[in-house]
Amino acid sequence: MLHTLLPAVVAGVVLMLAANGCTTVYLHRTLAHRAVSVRGPVHVAFRTFVWISTGIRPRQWVAVHRKHHAFTDVPGDPHSPVLLGWMTVQRRNVTLYRREAKNAETVGRYARDIPQTRADRWFFDHAMLGLAIGLTFLVVVLGPVVGLLAAFVYLNLFLGTNAAVNAIGHHFGRKPYPNGAGNLQWLAFLTAGEGLHNNHHAAPTSAKLSHRWFEVDPGWWVIRILTVLHLAKVRLSELRLTQAASGAASKAAHVASNAAHAAGAAASNAAIAVGTAASTAASAVAEATKSSPTPGLNT
To answer: Where among 241, 258, 287 does a domain terminate?
Structure first.
């Protein structure tokens, strides 16, 4: 039993990490936010893998995500845990996504820069065909039992981690910037960086989701490798925060500067006070010494 279950779990986890990597690097950072551009062969490779591993239509995913940014946690957000509760979004994320993805008005408005191509009409828009190809590949490579078990493990992990980004990632975690999302490093490891969601909402056009030395964004590693190989290009070299995040950062820096100045002034005043007290004490001791008779010299 173990020799069957273990390879299936390992294969399912590897597939989940690969699919999440494609989701964040290709669907999210490249298509939805145009933070990265990739060469033609890379585009085809990403597009094909997304098709056979998830069945997602990129223009639908992009439209739903862009609408989420346009209406983050307010009426109109397709999957807001603030409006629906994080547990509801975690359970019903697929349903919420499909409902919005089928909205022609949403797709037409938020993904007008991603038109349907001939390849889409022939292949990529047929989700079940792509998933069937992917499942067949697993069965051929791993065998029918392990292949089907791996597909089951992968499906649950992929859907669960993506739901967690929309649900848990908008409810829990560190919030260094003033938005409703949170930073969860453990989720970032599972989703190739998407768990650093507070950072993303503070700088949505940034290709890099880690903003501090202790934050890890595996998706950025993939982008860096592609750029070194001249297969991708990052649009912005600097971090560009939203107006709200930038204002909060400036305010925090101003408060920190004032606090530093106040602490410096307090330390200086304290030093002066200590010096004055010490000088006064020394003068008093000297005066007392001069006025006191010296022992042994009394007559």
So the answer is: 241
In angstroms, the CA 251 to CA 165 distance is: 28
Assess whether 136 and 258 both reside in one domain: no
pLDDT per residue of the chain (299 residues) written in tens, 0 to 9: 778 899 999 999 999 999 999 999 999 999 999 999 999 999 999 999 999 999 999 999 999 999 999 999 999 999 999 999 999 999 999 999 999 999 999 999 999 999 999 999 999 999 999 999 999 999 999 999 999 999 999 999 999 999 999 999 999 999 999 999 999 999 999 999 999 999 999 999 999 999 999 999 999 999 999 999 999 999 998 889 988 776 655 554 444 445 445 555 555 665 565 566 556 655 654 565 555 554 443 43
How does DSSP classify residue 125? T
Q: Residues 228, 189: one domain?
A: yes
Q: Assess whether 67 and 50 both reside in one domain.
A: yes
The C-alpha atoms of residue 146 and residue 5 are separated, in whole angstroms, by: 7
Could you give the count of Cα atoms lying within 13 Å of 56 in the half-sphere of its Cβ? 27
Burial class of residue 139 in the structure, from the number of CB atoms within 10 Å of its CB (0-12 exposed, 13-18 middle, 19+ buried)? middle
